[in-house]
Amino acid sequence: MNDITVIILTKNEEANIKRCILSVKELATRIIVVDSGSTDKTCDIAKEVGAEVVVHPFITHGKQFNWALDTLDIKTKWVFRLDADEEVTPELRKEISEECVAHADDNVNGLIVKFKIYFLGKFLKHGGVYPFYRTTIFKYGKGYIDEVGMRDQTIITEGELLYLKNDCLHYDFKSLENWISKHNWYSTLETINYEQATKDDTDANLPESAKKTRKARNNLYYKLPKYFRAKLYYWYRYYLKLGFLDGEAGRIHAFMQAYWYRYLIDAKIYEMETKKNGE
After folding, report:
1. DSSP code, position 225
2. β-pairing, 143-145 with 30-35?
3. How many CB atoms lie under 10 A from the CB of residue 226?
4. Which residues, 6+ apart, have CB-to-CB distance to 190 below 8 Å?
5. Distance CA 157, CA 139 (A)
6. pLDDT of the residue at 10
């Protein structure tokens, strides 16, 4: 058993939560599910497979996770932020265990995990989707989650970051209906925090890929005309980043990310500006 607390935020994740918890059960000292009012069997399943369950009202991902850090009496050296729709592979589990031991007492305070997205029956390998990186493991007291808008990135307050080699599987798909509902909610959060989201904070201690993404979004994407930028985003993902090599799933993912999600954000930004100017 390793000196690691796994924290999983949930709401109505009965399709995923068992697979998620079992993938880290041999890795963690403690597994905590922080649920925000599930109406399905999420909490029951989590308890059945050995996790602690705490219920707390949801505001944003960042605020929810930071509440858990501040409130749940964490005593382990490491904290692992894991989403309910993610699964740690055996190879990654072994690597995490080894690196947490190797860097327990040095200046490496965060571990960056590589994710592979599952969408419409396949793992996407192109279109700028794979790999994507996120700092998900950090020493307790050395990190927190950015609470602004949709960023919810892990910020390491000091020390170094280490990239892990093996994949974490991200099952970001239950159905298109669920995907649309979730991304409609995401688009509202990003619109509400639009002014903050366009501030350049690339000096934060983030993976280089996250810094580049923020810089491109703040200094390029949001400088382009509304709606037109969604079209360019699709062309970039599908053609320049070879999303078409992922077949029909790749085409649908690129289209939905651009012409649905990104276009919807622009429409909501326009709605927000119109209401503001009409006051």
Report:
1. P
2. unpaired
3. 15
4. 149, 150, 197, 265
5. 10
6. 95
Q: Looking at residues 107-131, what average pLDDT do you find?
A: 94
Domain ranges of the chain: 4-170, 176-277
pTM equals 0.85
CB 263 within 8 A of CB 234: no
Query: Residue 73 corresponds to which amino acid?
Result: D
The Cα 112–Cα 159 span in angstroms is 13
- Which residues share a beta bridge with 31? 6
Q: Which of 134, 140, 145, 144 is nearest to 167 (CA)?
A: 134
**Do residues 11 and 34 make contact, with C-beta atoms less than 8 angstroms apart?**
no
State the Cα–Cα distance between residues 219 and 188, nearest whole angstrom.
21
User: Looking at residues 245-270, what average pLDDT do you find?
Assistant: 95
Closest-CA residue to 164 (of 108, 205, 213, 123): 108
The larger pLDDT score, comparing residue 267 to residue 217, is at 267
Q: Which amino acid would we find at residue 190? A: E
Nearest-5° Cα angle at 229, 224 to 233: 135
What does the block give as tokens for 229? 């930028």
Fill in the amino acid letter for 164.
L
What is the tens place of the pLDDT at every residue in 161-215?
Answer: 999 999 999 997 778 998 898 899 888 878 876 666 555 454 556 666 566 666 6
Q: Which residue has the tokens 């969604």?
A: 230
Amino acid at 227: Y
CA gyration radius, the chain: 19
Distance CA 244, CA 240 (A): 9
| Residue that has been written with the tokens 């200046």 in this structure | 107
Specify the CATH architecture of the domain 4-170.
Alpha-Beta Complex (3.90)
